[in-house]
Specification:
The complex is a heterotrimer of chains A (202), B (135) and C (291). Chain B is of the alpha/beta class and 135 residues long. Chain B has 5 helices and 6 strands; from the N terminus they run βαβαβαβαββα. Chain B starts with 5 loop residues before the first strand and ends with a helix. Helices cover 46% and strands 9% of the residues of chain C. In chain C, helix 1 links the parallel strand 1 (2-5) and strand 2. Classes of the chains: A mainly alpha (202), B alpha/beta (135), C alpha/beta (291). Chains A and C meet through helix 6, helix 7, helix 8, helix 9 and helix 10 of A and helix 2, helix 3, helix 4, helix 5 and helix 8 of C.
C-alpha cells in the first residue's frame, strides 16, 4: 500500500483551509501573482515601507504567515488596513512579488469573511465609498468623510469643520453630489457584476 | 411513437451539439426544443414551458450560462420556472482547465442542479435527466 | 492629437484647479481633450479593497465608453490613473476576468475590446508633445522659482514604463527647460499617506511632514504635484502638522499643470491659483520681469 503523503495543511482546520484557498485564488488573479512563492524573506519590502514602523505584522511577515498557512492572523492584523498602497515594496522586491496587490487581495478576503482587527475602522471607509459610488456613479468626497466620521468618531467631524469651510470658500467642495446620467444602466451592470464576482473555479 | 415523457430545452450556441443531442433525447422519448443564445432561450422558456433545461455555460461570453441559470432559478421574471431543473453541459473545463461554480458562502445565488462536462456520454446524460425529473 | 479625457471625481471638486489648469495647458499646446460622456467613478483604491470583479467592472465601464474616442485615455488624478491602468492590464492579462467584466458591461450594451492605452497627462505632455515644443511655446520664464517636484507614488509605481521608479525625471526636465530651479528633493516619490490622513491621522501627518520638510529645508518655495490627494494632504494639513510637531511649515503646493500654465502665459485665475489655501504668487517677483 502506498503511504499517504502527510501534508502540512492536514494540521489545520477547515476554516483555515478555506481562507487559504480563497486567498490563493485571488493572488493568482493578479498579473505576476504566482511570484509570491519566490519570496526569499529578505525584508526589502518592510525596509521600503513608509508605514511599516506602525504595523503589527510587517510585509515580510505576511508572506511568512501565508507560508505557515495562518491567513487568519494576517486578516486580524491592522497591517493590511494601514497599507497606503504606495507600491514601494512591489517595485523594490528582487523576486517580483506583487506585495501591494497581495495586500489588496487580503483586504478583500477580510471584507468578505468579515474578519477585522479591533477598533480599526478603515474598512468602514471602503464600505461607505462603495455604497456612495454605487448610488451616484460618482464619488462624493464630503459625503464620504461625513458618513465615515459619523460611523467612527463623530467628534473628529468638528475638528474638520474649519478646513471644510475654507475649502468651500475656495470652491473646492461641491455642495451636492455629482451623478451620472445612466444610473439605471450602471445598476444593471453592477447586478450582473455581482453574479460574475461569485463565480469561482471549483 | 409513444407519448413524450417530458419536454427538454437545449440551450447551446453550438449547432453541432444541438444536432447531436437531439436524437439522443428523442430516443429516450423526450420532446426537444432548442435555443442558440440566451435571448432566444428566454423566448423559448416562456413559449414552450420546458420541464428541464440543458444549459451551456459559454455562449456570447464565457459565463453567460451562469447568469441565465441564476435568473431562471431566482428572479421574479422567471417565477413559474424557478423550480425547473437545470443541468450545465459545458466544455469550460476543456477550455480553461477548471470547472466553475458559485461561491458557496455567497447568499442568494442559484446554481444548476447538475453539471456534465462535454463531451457527453449519452447514457450518462439520460440517466441524470431521469434522476432529476423523478424528484 | 486628440485624447479621451477622464477627469475623475476629485477634479470636479477639491481638485478643480487641476481640471482648469490641465484644460488650459492642453489648449495652449493645441492638444484636444474630449471628455468621455457620462463617465463614472473609477472605484478608487477603496473599491479594489472590497470586491475584485465589480471593482474591475466599474472602472472598465469607463474604458468601454472611452474606446470610441481613440487609443489614449488621459487621467490626471494619480489614483484614477492607477486604477484604470491596472484594470486595463488585468483585463489584457486575464481572459477569464475580461469575459466576466464584459458579461456585466453587456447589460448596458457596452463592451471593452482592450484597445486603449491609459496615460497620465505628464507622460502625454513630455513624451507626445515634447519638452522642446513646450519650451518653444512658453512665453513666460519660470526663472528663479525654486521648485520641489513631488511625483508621489502612483505615477511611476508599480511598472508604468514612463519614468524611473525611484528617481523620476519627467517634471524635473520639463521645468528645468522652462527656467525653474529644481531643489534637491530626495522625497520626490515618498508616500504622502493617501487616505491614512483620514483613517489614521497620526501616521498620515508624519509622512506628510517629512515630505514638506525635505522641500522647505532644501529651499523650495513651492511644491509641484501630479495628484489631487497628494496636493490636498500636503497643502491642507500644514497647520495641524505645525501644531503637532512644533514645526514651521508654510509652503504652497500646486499642480504641475498650474506651473506649466504660468509658463504658457495663463493668468492665475485661468489656472485656478485663486483656489489655493496657501497662496502661490510668483509673478510679483519673477514672472513680471521676464514677460
Amino acid at each position: 500500500m502506498k503511504e499517504r503523503e502527510i501534508k502540512f495543511s492536514d494540521f489545520f482546520s477547515k476554516k483555515e483551509k478555506r481562507l487559504e484557498d480563497s486567498f490563493i485564488q485571488q493572488v493568482y488573479n493578479i498579473p505576476g501573482g504566482e511570484s509570491i512563492n519566490k519570496c526569499i524573506q529578505c525584508g526589502v519590502c518592510t525596509g521600503s515601507c513608509p508605514v511599516s514602523y506602525t504595523m503589527d505584522i510587517t510585509p515580510r511577515e505576511i508572506i511568512a504567515l501565508y507560508r505557515s498557512e495562518d491567513i487568519e492572523s494576517i486578516l486580524t492584523s491592522r497591517t493590511i488596513w494601514i497599507c497606503a498602497s504606495c507600491y514601494a515594496c512591489t517595485v523594490r522586491c528582487p523576486q517580483g512579488v506583487q506585495v501591494t496587490d497581495i495586500i489588496y487581495a487580503l483586504k478583500r478576503l477580510a471584507m468578505e469573511q468579515k474578519i477585522f482587527p479591533k477598533r480599526f475602522p478603515v474598512h468602514a471607509l471602503s464600505n461607505t465609498f462603495v455604497n456612495l459610488t454605487n448610488h451616484f456613479g460618482r464619488s462624493y468626497e464630503p459625503g464620504l468623510l461625513v458618513s465615515y466620521y459619523l460611523k467612527t468618531n463623530p467628534f473628529k467631524l468638528l475638528g474638520m469643520l474649519p478646513l471644510f469651510l475654507k475649502l468651500i470658500s475656495k470652491g473646492r467642495i461641491g455642495l451636492l453630489p455629482q451623478k451620472i446620467r445612466d444610473k439605471k444602466g450602471l445598476s444593471r451592470i453592477l447586478n450582473e457584476g455581482q453574479i460574475m464576482e461569485s463565480i469561482v473555479p471549483e | 411513437m409513444e407519448k413524450a415523457k417530458a419536454k427538454i430545452l437545449v440551450i447551446d450556441d453550438d449547432p453541432d451539439f444541438r444536432d447531436a443531442v437531439t436524437p439522443i433525447l428523442h430516443s429516450a422519448s423526450y420532446e426537444v426544443v432548442t435555443a442558440a443564445n440566451p435571448k432566444e432561450a428566454k423566448e423559448k422558456i416562456f413559449s414552450e414551458k420546458p420541464d428541464l433545461i440543458l444549459l451551456d455555460i459559454m455562449m456570447d461570453s464565457l459565463f453567460d450560462g451562469f447568469s441565465l441559470c441564476h435568473n431562471i432559478k431566482s428572479s421574479k421574471e422567471y417565477k413559474e420556472f424557478n423550480n425547473t431543473p437545470i443541468i450545465f453541459v459545458s466544455a469550460v473545463k476543456e477550455k480553461t482547465g477548471s470547472r466553475f461554480q458559485f461561491k458557496q458562502e455567497e447568499q442568494g445565488l442559484a446554481g444548476p442542479d447538475d453539471y456534465i462536462d462535454k463531451p457527453i456520454k449519452p447514457d450518462d446524460l439520460v440517466s441524470r435527466i431521469e434522476r432529476l425529473l423523478k424528484k | 492629437m486628440e485624447y479621451a479625457y477622464y477627469p475623475g471625481c476629485s477634479l470636479e471638486a477639491s481638485a478643480k484647479a487641476y481640471e482648469e489648469s490641465t484644460r488650459f495647458v492642453f489648449d495652449a499646446l493645441g492638444q484636444k481633450l474630449v471628455e468621455i460622456e457620462d463617465w463614472n467613478c473609477c472605484g478608487a483604491t477603496y473599491y479594489m479593497a472590497t470586491k475584485e470583479t465589480i471593482s474591475l467592472v466599474i472602472s472598465a465601464r469607463n474604458l468601454a465608453l472611452a474606446e470610441k474616442y481613440g487609443n489614449d485615455i488621459v487621467a490626471p488624478c494619480s489614483s484614477c490613473y492607477t486604477i484604470l491602468y491596472k484594470t486595463n492590464k488585468i483585463l489584457n492579462d486575464n481572459f477569464i476576468m475580461k469575459e466576466k467584466v464584459n458579461q456585466a458591461l453587456k447589460k448596458d450594451n457596452l463592451e471593452y475590446n482592450l484597445s486603449l492605452n491609459v496615460r497620465h497627462p505628464l507622460d502625454v505632455l513630455v513624451n507626445d508633445v515634447g519638452i522642446d515644443t513646450i519650451a518653444s511655446r512658453a512665453n513666460t520664464s519660470l526663472k528663479g522659482i525654486k521648485m520641489a517636484q513631488y511625483y508621489g507614488c502612483q505615477i511611476v509605481r508599480p511598472e508604468r514604463g514612463i519614468d524611473d521608479k525611484e528617481d523620476p525625471q519627467l517634471m524635473d526636465r520639463l521645468f528645468k527647460a522652462l527656467g525653474a530651479e529644481n531643489v534637491y528633493f530626495p522625497a520626490k516619490v515618498r508616500c504622502c499617506g493617501g487616505m491614512l490622513m483620514t483613517t489614521y491621522p497620526d501616521v498620515g501627518l508624519k509622512l506628510t511632514k517629512e515630505i514638506l520638510e525635505h522641500a522647505q529645508d532644501n529651499g523650495a518655495e513651492v511644491v509641484v504635484t501630479t495628484c489631487p490627494l497628494c496636493q490636498m494632504n500636503l497643502e491642507a494639513y500644514q497647520d495641524k502638522i505645525n501644531k503637532k510637531f512644533k514645526t514651521d511649515l508654510h509652503i504652497p503646493v500646486i499642480y504641475f499643470t498650474q506651473a506649466l500654465g504660468l509658463a504658457l502665459g495663463g493668468s492665475p485665475k485661468e489656472l485656478g491659483l485663486n483656489r489655493q489655501l496657501i497662496p502661490f504668487k510668483p509673478e510679483e517677483k519673477t514672472l513680471e520681469g521676464s514677460r
